[in-house]
Amino acid sequence: MKERLSMTGEKAYEQLCKKYGEITTLRNVSWGLHWDQDVMMPTMGLKNRARQLEMLSGLEHEMLVVDEIGDLLSICEDEWGEQIGSLGGEAKVVNVREIRREYDLARKLPGDLVKAQTSASSLARGAWGEAKKDRDFKGFSGHLEKLLGILREKADCLSEGKVVAEKWDALADLYEPGCQAREVEAVFRPLRERLVDLVGRIAEKGYEPKDVVNGVEVGFDAQMSFVRKIAEKIGFDFEGGRLDTSAHPFCSGYGYGDVRMTTHVTGDRLGGTLSSVMHESGHGMYTQGALEKHAGMPMGNYVSLGIHESQSRMWENQVGRSETFWKWCAGEMRHEFGELYEGLNARQAYEGMNGVKRSLIRTRADEVTYNLHVMVRFELEVAMMRGDLEVADLPGAWDEKYKDYLGLDVPDVGVGCLQDIHWSLGAIGYFPTYTLGNLYSAQFYEAAKRALGDIEGGFEQGEFVGLLGWLQTNIHEQGMRYRAGDLCEEVTGEKLGADALMRHLEAKFGDIYGL
Amino acid sequence: MKERLSMTGEKAYEQLCKKYGEITTLRNVSWGLHWDQDVMMPTMGLKNRARQLEMLSGLEHEMLVVDEIGDLLSICEDEWGEQIGSLGGEAKVVNVREIRREYDLARKLPGDLVKAQTSASSLARGAWGEAKKDRDFKGFSGHLEKLLGILREKADCLSEGKVVAEKWDALADLYEPGCQAREVEAVFRPLRERLVDLVGRIAEKGYEPKDVVNGVEVGFDAQMSFVRKIAEKIGFDFEGGRLDTSAHPFCSGYGYGDVRMTTHVTGDRLGGTLSSVMHESGHGMYTQGALEKHAGMPMGNYVSLGIHESQSRMWENQVGRSETFWKWCAGEMRHEFGELYEGLNARQAYEGMNGVKRSLIRTRADEVTYNLHVMVRFELEVAMMRGDLEVADLPGAWDEKYKDYLGLDVPDVGVGCLQDIHWSLGAIGYFPTYTLGNLYSAQFYEAAKRALGDIEGGFEQGEFVGLLGWLQTNIHEQGMRYRAGDLCEEVTGEKLGADALMRHLEAKFGDIYGL
Asked: pLDDT by residue (tens digit) across A20-77?
């Protein structure tokens, strides 16, 4: 310790990077093993894999919470003083700030509480599956109550020594650093009103574009081959990543130069596969956009789940569901698939990929209604954390909101408040990151167009490098330099708001539905 | 330490198993990552993966060499006394004995020497590749000399406190525990003479069976689908394993229930693919045959590389190149591939899969000449370790032996003494395990037939479960209970010798070539 205290900041920083690099190396191995489990692993390997993952996460935690890391951080902080607290700034300052944040969070959580959550959510996850199948909320409600109790305690631990407005904020902070319920509400409320209104105006038109992209039996191999080409074309680097299949699409990886994304293929749903691959490619390109010199450090990491989602949504929606994209993509499909898509018309494909319909299931929702599904969950989880809503009253409150925002009656909890797995995993604070992603995406996209001019003309020719380059410079290469909200202001010149997303939606759906 | 010394043997053993289980958990992750690197990883991931593997092997080593493991071992040894030293015996005794062996070996090697070997062989590997390409031994000889120097030092460290007849033995012990050059020579010498004689008699006949299995353009997907069926049929469990492709076939895995094997497919070489899959399935079934209760412990591990190879060779050669197997397999191929193999005749296929021809390249050699290739390498590496052969004289000595044993002139070192990568990796003592595998295989196979009666009649019907069950009981489930030689005596009633293999070869090739 003595020796350490006499260290210079540079020397301490060097050691800190080495130690933290080892932690992220183990973390990357775990991420990779998760990918392997969902994509490659034979069924009998499950127990063995669980042991490996448990051990790696234990090692990772042990290596993070040692006093030595705290000492090294203190030396750096003493030397670089006030810079550390501020956002932006040079790489070493960002790295120290973010390692400090992680270190403090990890030290604040008692091992018993972590184990209690793991065990409670493991039981809750099983009970959730059963209850959803049986359409019986009572089989899950006790588990959710217990989990919420643990999460309240966790929120208290995490907020120790910090000013946190409410418990939900402390939990959401793990997915979206700095996120606050009040601020999210301030953006979501007007957005919700404008979306409900837009959905109403669309519904009134009674127009249902035909889904001409899906419904054609293309087969597995042909779909995979086509979507790989599209992913490569928009900029996903297959020298540094793979695309495979899994039950649910996701994007993960083993670390620098090794992104693993997946999709799920149904033989006659090429449009669905394509959207999911555009989405996951967005995540993947964000990861690939980090600079090698920052690999394993916070400066080579992502800002928040909301910002990650902004990248996936931009390629899925702003690009992949735009008319200009389809002017190019329809031609690619005619060329690739011959008679299967012989008469495919770009306008029809574009409209077909953009059908809006009120529905009960979030994961199948369109670009407009999707955010309403998210808001229902956000509002209810905040209410539960605040103690304004009892778990027993969750189904009723859920159904009421679906009636209010989407005009739908929920027949049972299986397609109601039990449809998503998140709460059973204890993931409170996660849902809003989906809609935050849509909001950031729209605002970033407008900024990119202001900076780059007519990028959409390029899309028509299958050129996407301009947009990707702008994202790399302004977002990917910035790592964790800024918090999500600050990055948004820095890049777009404005705080996060609902306007950009609404302009995007009004323009597109106004055009399609003749509003 | 005090607390530990007052521990009971049972308690110490329990803790030892926990600690050692963690070490093998990390080791299994490393094996899996190696598989991923060769089979799945995108090219850009190389540097990142190297960092992960280096870190995991460092952690694994650190966890093994701590004093605590030594203390726990001592308590068990004190309590169980003489049992520990003996072979055979109950699981806990075997586990303590083998963990002690591994612990002592790991503690004996100075970190500097390990690093020196890693760095020297990394350079040697690169130089080997260049020298092989340039067909210029001088580009490699300096590296080999340096490596041999390090290996001599390593042999001295490894033999410290043990009676080891010569340096080569200490190195071979890492692949084939207890293996001694003198003993290997005593088996190989008569085998060599009899093989040279057999090859001569075959050559005299001038008969060249036509290779009717290869040479048909079957394509990748059809080959993979067919060989997967065959692997499953002989007993490889796909619920606990996978088959993929890589540049060179191998068998590895992530641990219990998760075997990963690979093959290499050339569109018109179905026979080659099939043989390699039979071979790797043999390795894979050995791994799958370990008992779950011993997972992660020596009792759930394999005896030696020679014994591992005996399992792969048995399925590749004794089974997969037998006439009875082809009576079944030819029918399967006619059924699977329709007109591509319409007139496939079992006898012709069997003969075609068993062509014997003197050649320069080990990896392409047939079942008879293969062992002569191995012996050349074994004799030369022993001579070099003994100081009886200078590195500079290696090419000459190599060529002389190829002339003596195989009657061939070696045109250059690229197809001569530089053809294999092994020595450049510092793997002295590895080559003989290939032929040891063939010898054990033949001897085990005779024992199985004595115990089971007419198993070959079953092969004709595509029934292999009898042989596999016998291997499981007698070999796979025994883990590391015996050393290779003792296992052989235990299972076959005889010491390892050349007779069984020669009986097998004389019978088969006598029949095919009319000797």
From this structure: 999 999 999 999 999 999 999 999 999 999 999 999 999 999 999 999 999 999 999 9
* Number of structural domains chain A divides into: 1
A45–B257 C-beta distance less than 8 A: yes
- For A220, other C-beta atoms within 10 Å of its C-beta total 12
pTM for the model: 0.94
A383 near B CB under 8 A:
no
Q: Point out which residues pair with B245 in neighbouring strands.
A: B263
B295 contact residues in A (CB cutoff 8 A): 48
Residue B302 is part of which domain span? 220-358+458-481
Q: Is residue A391 within 8 Å of residue A141, measured between CB atoms?
A: yes
How far is Cα A41 from Cα B240, in angstroms, rounded to an integer?
8
Whether residue B279 is annotated as binding a ligand: the answer is yes
Give the torsion through C-alpha atoms of B398, B399, B401, B407, to 10 deg. 150
Give the residue from B93, B108, B123 where a domain finishes.
B108
- Are A22 and B55 in contact (CB < 8 Å)? yes
Chain Cα centroid distance, residue A398: 23
Percent of residues, chain B, with pLDDT higher than 70: 98
DSSP B263: E
**A492 occurs within a structural domain:** no
Distance from CA of B371 to the nearest CA of A (A): 36
Residue located via tokens 């029918």: B331
Instruction: Tell me which of A28, A36, A228, A251 to substitute to probe the interface with B (most B C-beta atoms closer than 10 Å).
Output: A36
| Position B420 in a domain | no
Contact B239 A42 (CB under 8 A): yes
Q: Using alpha carbons only, what angle is made at residue A306 by residues A304 and A311, rounded to the nearest 5 degrees?
A: 100
Residue pLDDT, tens place only, B389-418: 999 999 999 999 999 999 999 999 999 999
If you count residue pairs, one on A and one on B, with CB atoms under 8 Å apart, how many are there? 106
